[in-house]
Amino acid sequence: MFVWPIRVYYEDTDVGGVVYYANYLKFFERARTEMLRSLGFEQDELIANAGVIFAVRSVQVDYLSPARFNEHLSVQSKVIEAKKVSLTFAQTITRGNVECCTASIRIACLDAHTLRPKAIPENILEQLNNEY
After folding, report:
1. Does 14 participate in catalysis according to the annotation?
2. Which family does it belong to (predicted)?
3. What is the CATH number of the domain that holds 12?
């Protein structure tokens, strides 16, 4: 499991100081990007060198406990299914031992030029399977 720390900034919250619901998706996105980066894969380099991009295909989110301004959160990310052209992540945002938000997010691998499905590069799949 990959874990990425997040601090809640004022811009992440509504007028009541609670994280705006759509911003949890941003937190999940950052964690997936950092997960790839931790394996040595930069998304701009994947576009330039492998001709692939990753795009969200579907999201199922459950909001469990509100996160608030200035709190420290952790985003846990785990690949729970790897197919030829897609990855499904289980992601959870916690504040200490409290689950704030959980999600199942399916990511499609696309050709950077045609935006059609394209096989995930083998080296990425191998790294994900070995590390996470």
Report:
1. yes
2. Belongs to the 4-hydroxybenzoyl-CoA thioesterase family.
3. 3.10.129.10
Strands (E) located in 23-124: 52-63, 72-82, 86-95, 98-111
Q: Nearest 5 degrees, angle CA 88-CA 23-CA 66?
A: 100
66-124 tens-digit pLDDT: 999 999 999 999 999 999 999 999 999 999 999 999 999 999 999 999 999 999 999 99
CA torsion through residues 42, 44, 47, 48, sign: negative
Catalytic entry in 12, 14, 44, 62: 14
To the nearest 5 percent, what fractions of the chain are helix, strand and coil? 30, 45, 30
Cβ(13)–Cβ(68) below 8 Å: yes
Q: Is the pTM of this model over 0.85?
A: yes
Q: Which domain holds residue 15?
A: 2-131
Give the per-residue pLDDT at 84.
94
